[in-house]
Amino acid sequence: MLPAIFVTQHGVASWPVFGRLAKLSPSIFVNRDRKREVIQTIDCISDALSVDDVVAIFPEGTSTDGTAVLPFRSALLGAVRETLHKAEDLRAVHVQPVSVRYAGPNRRRAAWAREDDSSFFSHLLQVIRLRRIDVTLRWEAPIPADIQADRKALARTLEQTIRRSAAQG
């Protein structure tokens, strides 16, 4: 098990069961629609990185059916620079690209393409009925980002890496 703090959409906090679970586990909630809250989220991510915590973000910023990689959003990657400003002895933050892919005969039923919050629960019932779900995690080489790293360029590099990884299956 890899202990990590997950960054998830703010709406999850109000979901029955899953909101409670997310609040009990290390989570950072983000409202990508409010710039001030995104800045606060970047600060929370930076605080976690500064004490060597692992933070997992999903830069597509939404869920999909998993058949394509969507453009990456760069805002939360601003935490790299913020972390390096806070920790003077730290020279780089290593960003670990990981692709997640459902495989096997249940892959289409396992992935959840978010339409609205209520559709998640009907999807969850469908997933519970599946006998097996195969998931492939592909870990690519970590990408070091120093104080000069541009978050938009970093997002493009990460997106290209994940696209290549996804194409390799």
Topology, element by element:
Elements: E1 5-9, H1 18-24, E2 27-30, H2 35-50, E3 55-56, H3 78-86, E4 93-95, E5 98-103, H4 107-110, H5 117-129, E6 134-139, E7 143-145, H6 151-168
Parallel strand pairs: 1-2, 1-3
Antiparallel strand pairs: 4-7, 5-6
What do these coordinates show?
- The protein has 169 residues and is α/β, with parallel strands linked by helices.
- The chain has a domain of 103 residues.
- The chain is 40% helix and 17% strand.
- The protein is built from 6 helices and 7 strands.
- Helix 2 packs across helix 3.
- The longest helix is centred in the last third of the chain and has 18 residues.
- It is globular, with a radius of gyration of 17 Å.
Task: Write a brief caption for the model.
This protein is α/β, with parallel strands linked by helices and 169 residues long. The protein has helices at 18-24, 35-50, 78-86, 107-110, 117-129, 151-168; strands spanning 5-9, 27-30, 55-56, 93-95, 98-103, 134-139, 143-145.
